[in-house]
Every structure is written in structure tokens, then in C-alpha cells.
Amino acid sequence: MKPRGDGGAADGTNARAAGELRGRFCARTHPGSTRNPAAAHRVGSDRRRSPEPAAHHTGGTVTSSVTRALTATVRAAAHGPHRECACPAPPTVLADRDDGTVVRHGGTVAKAHAPDADRGQLAARLAVAAHPALNGVLLAPLDVPGTELDGRAVTFWPYGTPVDPDAPEAAPWEEAGTLLARLHAVPVDTLPGPLPPMRGPHKAALALTRMRRARPHQDLAAPVERAWSTLPPWARAESSAPGPQRLCHGDLHLGQLVRHGDWLLIDVDDLGLGDPAWDLARPAAWYAAGLLTPEEWLRFIDAYRAAHGPAVPADADPWPALDVPARALTVQTAAQAIAKSTVAQRPLDEIELALVEACDRIAALPRELPAEPAK
């Protein structure tokens, strides 16, 4: 499908309404004037800075007790408990956050999941990732028995090369769109179950809770709260999503792709049944807020449609289907930014301010555009 200057309307259906929505959403920042070429990757992966004690690290050394114990665990998984290690590089901390600690040893990665992760739901998600229907879509876990560490479930994975945040021009937007379309098309009744709900709306609600606990200045929190109040109950994790339930990733951003032979999706912690439009919502929100260029957005959405993704209509404007999830992801990301900046006692940066400003405009929009059924 060729790129279209209208951001996605093939036949003009709802194009005017969607164009007005995007214009009001963006206000001072048009999508074509991206504030920072690398912003979409940094905002989407929430890894620009993290003031909490459990902070993200890239290429870091092992410091905390959890990462030290996880290092011994991943070494045993990689080599066996009694073999000498001849790996040329030391263990590397890929992430150390409240919701997950990840350590690499050679070609093996160990992840200690969040302490409150539901073991039954995690087992179901791991079974889906290992299912043949997801070959070439999701990175499959290693055939190594899982374990526990300080009350946290530990799983093992092959290492994959992540997206380079310093090369935004090489970002795999087409691959992301194609992989999501293939994920959403997997027949749910062929998968092991029962499948849990996709956790996207739940994580949005958690972001609001986190912001409130940080007690930010009311001038910052008020636009986010107003925008949150305009969302329907399902987008606030207060009810089930309407419409057909499909297999969804739940937390799509460029940090969730790695190259392991081909590009694959990673991180099954939020995988489950839900509205597939949620998986498209973060790039849609970046585009609407001016953090993603029209060209990048079209690379993503056109690839999704070319692969027959079911979340949006094949030949009509995608924005009615994406409207509510995109608003929710904007609110979630703004709430996270406010919480982090409040804890760190620093002002919001330009990108974070753009998200808060977008929330202020979302609060003035109609509650939602009527979504057209995907064909």
C-alpha cells in the first residue's frame, strides 16, 4: 500500500473527522515537525531516565543482590552448574526495574519477573510464546526449566540484538507492523489456554496510580486526570474491551523488538486477549503528538494493513478504531513522566511537556469517534 498524505484514509471515509482530531490533538506541534528524531524510541520504551531505585541499565555491571543472584542463575543455565565459563564478555544487566530484572550471559538471558506476577497467567503466556503458531513472531523461551529467586519467577531466553536507539532512521517500523498483524491473526482457539486478558489497560491504570502517589503539582496532574476521565471504562481497566478479542502483545514499542535471525517480538508479560488496536496505539499516539513523522507512521500502519492486520479497516481511515487506545497511551505515558520527574525533583523536559499538553487537548475532544469494523 502506497503512503498517503492524509495519514491513513484510503477513500476519504471519516478523513475530515480524523484530520480534525489529529489537528486538535497536536495543536502547536504538527506531526510533520518531530521534536526529536529519536524521541519515539526513547519515549516508547520509557528508558530515557528512571529515578526509581530499580532503574534501567544498558551494558551495566552487576550491582544489586537480585542481579548478583540472577547472574549466577543465568550462568548455570548457559553452561551447567559445574562447567567453567569461557565467555569473552562478563554478564550484562539489561534491565533492573520493579517490574523485571534481566541479565545476559553470552547467548542466554534470564528474566526475574515482577514479584506480584500471577504464576498461572505467566505459564499460559510462556506456553503461547513456545507454540508453533507463534514461530517467527514471538521470541520463544529456552527449553530450560524455570525457577524462582526471592519470590520472583525466573525464565530463560535466547539473546537477540535490540533496536539501536541512536539510529532512528533504521528503526524497523515495517517489521513491527507486520509482526503485530501476524500476532493478531493467530486463531485463539488453537493456542494453549485459558489465555489471560491483555494487560495494556491495566498498565495505564497503574500509571495513574503511580502519578497520584508521587503527589505532583496540581497544574501538571490536572490535564492528565481530565484526559483520563474522558476514556471509556474498558480503557481504564474497569471492564472488558468491546468487540472480538484477539491475541495482543499489550506493550508494543521499539524496545520490544530484537533481531534473532529475523526481527521478533519479545516480552510476554502483558500478552493476552484484548482489542488489537491497543498494540497500534503507542505509535499512533506518538504521531498524533508530533513525536513520530508521517513517513514513519505510514511505514508502520501500511505494513500492518499489507499483512492483513485486523485491528483497523483495510480501506478506510484507521483513526476511529485507534482513537481511544491512542488517547489512553498518551495519558499513560504522560502520567509516567510526571511520576518520574516528581520523584527526581526535576522539571519535565520538552517531550514530556508535549505529552501533558496533548492530555489537555484530549480532555477537550469528543469522548470518542465511532469505530468502523475492520474488514
UniProtKB/TrEMBL annotation:
Annotated Aminoglycoside phosphotransferase domain residues: 113-314
Region (Disordered): 1-64
Biased composition (Basic and acidic residues): 43-55
Family matches, as Gene3D superfamilies: 3.90.1200.10
Pfam families membership: APH
Chain intervals with Gly residues compositional bias: 1-10
Protein's name according to its UniProt entry: Phosphotransferase
Naturally occurring in which organism (per UniProt): Streptomyces boluensis
